[in-house]
Design brief:
This protein is mainly α. It has 4 helices and no strands. The N and C termini lie far apart (about 55 Å).
Length: about 100
């Protein structure tokens, strides 16, 4: 059986990824902030299920932690939508003008 010969063309040599180094940095920072928000939500329960403690309603768990988690999700959203520096959008050149 004959093997196919792989040819290199200029199109295959120039591989462009959608995410750059900065995108991945922001993505990892956002994931870290989200994890920090969930860590801030931990705790507040009592050892005995029959005993109620007010500690579960602390401002850290009710207000600060969800805001921190939402900020982390915002950073992740920014990392996904941020364009890579030096990225050329070739689709715009091909659109007809109206």
């Amino acid at each position: 059986m004959a093997q196919k010969e792989l040819r290199r063309t200029p199109e295959t040599d120039d591989v462009q990824f959608s995410f750059g180094r900065e995108n991945y940095k922001f993505l990892l920072i956002g994931i870290g902030i989200v994890i920090l928000g969930f860590i801030l939500m931990i705790g507040g329960g009592s050892e005995d299920p029959n005993v109620f403690t007010e500690e579960i309603f602390s401002p850290r768990r009710i207000t600060v932690a969800p805001i921190v988690a939402l900020i982390g999700y915002g950073v992740i959203f920014y990392a996904i939508l941020k364009r890579k520096s030096g990225f050329r959008d070739t689709d715009k050149e091909q659109l007809p003008r109206i």
